[in-house]
Known about the structure:
Chain A is of the alpha+beta class. The first copy, chain A, has helices spanning 7-23, 29-35, 42-54, 71-81, 90-97, 103-118, 171-185, 195-205, 209-224, 243-246, 248-259, 261-273, 323-347, and strands at 58-59, 68-69, 121-129, 134-143, 146-153, 157-164, 231-234, 280-284, 296-306, 309-318.
Amino acid sequence: MAAELDGRKKKILQAVIRNYLETGEPVGSRTISKYTDLNLSSATIRNEMSDLEELGYIIQPHTSAGRIPTDQAYRLYVDSMMEEKDREIGELKEMLLEAENKVDKVLKNVAKVLANNTNYATVVSAPQIRGNKLKFLQLSRVDENQILAVIVVEGNVIRNEMISVDEPLTDEMLLKLNILLNTHLTGLSIDEINLGMITALKEQAGIHSDLISTVLDAVAEAIRGEEDLEIYTSGANNFFKYPELADNEKASELIGTFEEKKALAKLATENLADEQNTGIQVYIGEESPIKAMKDCSVVTATYELEEGMRGSIAIIGPKRMDYEKVVASLKTMKDELERIYNRRKEADPDG
Amino acid sequence: MAAELDGRKKKILQAVIRNYLETGEPVGSRTISKYTDLNLSSATIRNEMSDLEELGYIIQPHTSAGRIPTDQAYRLYVDSMMEEKDREIGELKEMLLEAENKVDKVLKNVAKVLANNTNYATVVSAPQIRGNKLKFLQLSRVDENQILAVIVVEGNVIRNEMISVDEPLTDEMLLKLNILLNTHLTGLSIDEINLGMITALKEQAGIHSDLISTVLDAVAEAIRGEEDLEIYTSGANNFFKYPELADNEKASELIGTFEEKKALAKLATENLADEQNTGIQVYIGEESPIKAMKDCSVVTATYELEEGMRGSIAIIGPKRMDYEKVVASLKTMKDELERIYNRRKEADPDG
DNA sequence: GTTAGCACTCTTTTTAGTTGAGTGCTAACA
DNA sequence: TGTTAGCACTCAACTAAAAAGAGTGCTAAC
């Protein structure tokens, strides 16, 4: 199986795929005979198609139907037959700028714009920070028995924790705790905060050791970024545009999965785990990290806003998706996101 | 139209509605004849049904079909024919407790649990604060040219704003600004922060008046709570369980709307606007505040966690939804939410 | 190696016929 | 006067059969 294809077979297979991407209908020999510039009769095409079927690139849904591409054919197409598409997607960029300087809004927008533009469903994950350190920590009294802990982690991830205390803390105590925590914790990563240190901190805090516990938990969560990976989705109803996904059972499953952000997080983590990967990844059918998407193709891109702050963008559609367009759109978005960030960081420091 | 119904007509109408709620199929005279304890023949029922049709309570989808209730009938049913259902929904409560002390997680859970329990779609809006005041404001230096503004509004809504500054602020300056802002702004509502005060503040801040602007904007947004109303949804795929909503066109529209949190926010604002309303609201068909839900019924409840902190829970399903159960579930959830809050506030101050 | 032609297959569409649920109306009955 | 049995009628839903259409595989000729 999967032997090398000669030039003509390649051309024919490509034509079959292209045509099927457009129409979603099985494509017959006569169509190809006209579609390509090979000037071959349908009979010849039939012979070739017969070969392609034997090689596992196309199948017939039933005896007297045309052929449709197999996952193997899509794989070949994506890997080596796809042409770089012009990225004319100027409007994508414009729509991004609206959202000014709020990362979460920009990402929400990315999801929406991509979904509108491609007619597929999109999943965008907020940048996740790994192996980073505590940058800033402060306890403040908000009222008599409420203390606000503000935690900032490298990458400017901010976390707030409101802590109730039975007995009001004096100003001195608060100051003391602040100094204590900062001198011991600032600049440390999660691995460097060990049990011995925690015990020491608690001892020094005396009757307020509970407070320390709560703060430390919050610090740990903030550093790990475990809280919950923010996921933005858009275009779930685009599934309905493709009959092969739109029947009740499949649509229901897809929509259900799409609602379950936790399941979608897999898409992000899958890609982000591979720190090298900064490119585009294509999952066809069963290759998908999410079972519910076995009838779909999933294309993901990884973006990097800053050292270590990486997130992912995914587009989910039918297997017969317009891979060229999707890949081009993803590249545009990825570049644009990274550009926006760089612009802000390098040229526009007072954002 | 809508004249008073005599007892028998009422009973028959109720039977028609009940039966239709269960089956979703038009119900015929013979069914009713057996369903009720009126001991009437189908012929008699037919006469009565004919009357009910003339009065606008039921219609025939086509000549030789049974009758289905109209919106008017549902209205009557919900207003006066519905029975209080026992609230046996103990598991709802248990599932809530998992989520400990994070309001957002609790609310996410509410949405999920309700959706699972009722088999309808749910929308939960986070509590919105109105007319509240600035409680706490603090600027801190995070690194040389980044200032973190932490803003706490009554009701413990916390907002962070990272502000870049060209020239590093000295410690004195920072202290001065903090005092300046706190003395002027703490305890004020949005209406009380007027232009004169802003100008005065900026003057006193000197070269850092830009900083003041940014902080004030953030304060204003925090107080208004305008940012974006958090909306949690669940059970979108439940729509597929009801054939009358599951055809591609309708499902697509519903799912699309369901994804558009902004549209859903209407549900919340609609109810919260009426400050008196702390009960259950039922929208049938066209009555719904959201056009896309014209074929659905929407039942909403308003919960109040604390003085002025009110949010809403909505359940969306087919018009033939199990109103008794939905109302009971909503009541349980509302009570439980309010109870959890009270427990925390009154009995467990260091939770 | 390529192509025209034809028989064959199998889905899709069309048509016609049948069934069944349910109604409205009439006439009889209590 | 209200109730009921009976019957003709309607119309969606189902079934079966027929026709159409798209496409193939194979063979024979070029």
